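To assess whether the prediction recovers the assembly geometry, we first specified each molecular entity separately, as shown.
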Amino acid sequence: MAGLELLSDEGYRVDGRRAGELRKVRARMGVFAQADGSAYIEQGNTKALAVVYGPHEMRGSRSKALHDRALVNCQYSMATFSTGERKRRPHGDRKSSEMTLHLKQTFEAAILTQLYPRSQIDIYVQILQADGGNYCACVNAATLATIDAGIPMRDYVCASSAGFIEDTPLADLNYVEEAAGGPQVALALLPKSDQIALLEMNSRLHEDHLEQVMEAASKACKDVYAVLDQVVRDHVHEVTTLLGE
Amino acid sequence: MLTSRTFLKRTRAGAVMKVVREHYLREDIACGAAACEQCGQQAGEPRLEAQPSGAASSLCPAPHYLLPDTNVLLHQVDILEDPVITNVIVLQTVLQEVRKRSAPVYKRIRDVISNPEKHFYSFTNEHHRETYIEQEQGETSNDRNDKAIRVAAKWYDEHLKKINNEETIQVILLTNDRNNKEKAVEEGLTAYTCEEYIKSLIANPDLVDRLACVSDEGKEIESGRIIFSEHLPLSKLQQGIKSGIYFQGTFRANRDNYLEATVWVHGDAEENKEIIIQGLKYLNRAVHEDLVAVELLAKDQWVAPSSVVLQDEGQNEVDDENEEEKENTLKSSVNKNMLRPSGRVVGIIKRNWRPFCGMLSKSQIKEARRHLFTPADRRIPRIRIETRQASTLEGQRIIVAIDGWPRNSRYPNGHFVKNLGTAGDKETETEVLLLEHDVPHQPFSQAVLSFLPKMPWSITEEDMKFREDLRYLCVCSVDPPGCTDIDDALHCRELENGNLEVGVHIADVSHFIRPGNALDQESAKRGTTVYLCEKRIDMVPELLSSNLCSLRSNVDRFAFSCIWEMNPNAEILKTRFTKSVINSKASLTYAEAQMRIDSASMKDDITTSLRGLNKLAKILKKRRIDNGALTLSSPEVRFHIDSETHDPIDLQTKELKETNSMVEEFMLLANISVAKKIHEEFSEYALLRKHPAPPPSNYDILVKAAKSKVSFNILE
Ligand SMILES: [Zn+2]
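The predicted structure of the complete assembly is given in tokenized form:
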């Protein structure tokens, strides 16, 4: 029989969202005292943790140091218990390395690295539970952690995915929608200037539809931005009242 | 609001996995009632009328909306499709269940919902904050769904009371499940069985005929003797098939003998490919095209395919002796050498019932309401239906659907669906032919037509960017007289080096039909244009088939061209393919083309081109035949139509001219060249067709017929 109906004729997705709606986003900043910055985010059932160290002196080989800007060092990992089936995930498997590279590109574009020549910024993210949109959750968590660490950025980097099913662009895909194998873009956006930090696409999408899907993704990024901004403001408010006492 | 669904699932590797999925509950799902002000902005127009205009019911005179449960939707879709039934709430729970259980019914219900005149509204109750319920510990998912339906009905009931209307609109739950109905009434809902409700409709007594008769399992055991053995449950069948006790195959009833059928076993086993089933009991209620499980009989019970013609003519239920007698006629006169693997049907894996066309055989008893229906397809058993309009339906072609086949019934039970018209009428019979051969023949829908190019159409500069301009070539087409869909055209000219350039130009339909859109899907579903005696059922709308994609003379048309350079010996030196624009110089019939070739006086460009083509075609054909090509003749026929009555009066096979084979030859050559190209470019994905040698058993019937009729033997 027919597989899962990803978008009903009434316009609801498998989990009850409408096409353009995000999953519920919950986030907290400053979850670790030891790190310079840290944050935890939940986007639906996808949960990610990010910690940021730096900027600090170069660790390891000094030859990697860049004379005009800071080096952004990223590391992406998935907890063994993050997926339905437990799998051992050695560090540096192909998927993780690819993700690490994407994160690095994204944050090199967002952090004002030229302010810290010859130094290094470390961003570590881990997926605690994977339910679609891993890259996006990582970017959003890392953004909050970077802000928590007080590292200057051009703007927030907000990421969201979008897919294309039944001639309709869907925002923020969950695992079931991702697994259906349709086209999917992941977009990391600097929302104020509408600049793209990273754009990635899986599987094939007809050129005619690209614009719609991009629009849905950037709208989703801006929605994410609104949530993240609120989280940051709440956090600052909380911290200042604590300091005030 | 957010909740999560958690369930356990077994993975392919056999491990148990816990799956957690998010499930959002919303507050913005509208009830769909036109008079409702609480639900705020409704997406699109409200579907349920403020003053439901459906048929008056004696059970429920007040205005009401209907809310059917899953089984009512599944079995009574014929009723729901009737224009009389309007203002129906279809729950998401019900829709999802139907989608799982029957794709055709789901499609039909979707069509009904999208018809604004029916006022059906599909309510997403599983995502509504007040109608979502959890499955309780120990509760089956069926019970849970029944409960969800009742909860939604209750919600509607209370929700509608809050509407400021003179009369409160009631919600009526339709369910045939006694248990569910009792519970609903306990909870204060109005609930009827589908039968009760339909019978209560004052102005529409004939709707009752179309009720599917799904009797309770329990009831049928009590009454009457059991004729058939029980069908095994699916799980047992699957086990049996896995362990090799049973065979899975497609049931094919014998056209000439209703007591015999063959099951074509699936898979590539060499042995027991075909299993013969003989006798009512062993056929065990399987219907032509069903997917069945068969048990092989012991060798001493094997039978031979019968050589007698047996039509089921019984009118009476209790006709055992007669039946046995007939079965015995099968067994006598059996040749030991003809014995074949035989078996009996132990269970049905999947029914493949469709609505059947046929005629009513009215019961001899005057007042009887139960009548037998004889399908036009002789492989389908007769079906018992209940109707009060037997005398009206007599002599009409009607459609009947099977509902079930209880163990104590000689015939399957069904219900009347539609009257096609008087038997013998040209329109009625045409309709029967189309329906029986499953030819989609409805007019094209608006959605399909919306993808047609806007007229007047012209070639743009953008189009020319990717096309070669071949309008200067002397292209012409050769087709049967009266042909309006010209899909191919040819040209041939001499090159300076003494070689010949030959081109085949095929109408570029893909320019107008983009992959995946409604037009593409509809054309794919139709698959071919069907030619009837005086009617043509187009695969693509006429604007394309007879105009924009018809390579008519003296207009610019898009084509896909295959162009060869050949030497005078018809050996290909160069092949190329291109999208093109052509302008045919003449649309000829086979006879006209032949005349030009044979004429001594004509020497124009078109004629020279035709002569060149003809010469090459002869060489090509000879080479093909020498290489062992098979000539399969499927003569085309033409009808002679009486000019006054428009009745076909004579049939004539078309005379084949040289030019017929000329066109055929070049089409073949184009196909061969394209196939070669595809194989070269996409060797891994190319689909190449090959006919395996037919198994000798395919000729059994022919051999047997030859022996019995003219007593000559066909040698192996
Ligand atoms: Zn309402």
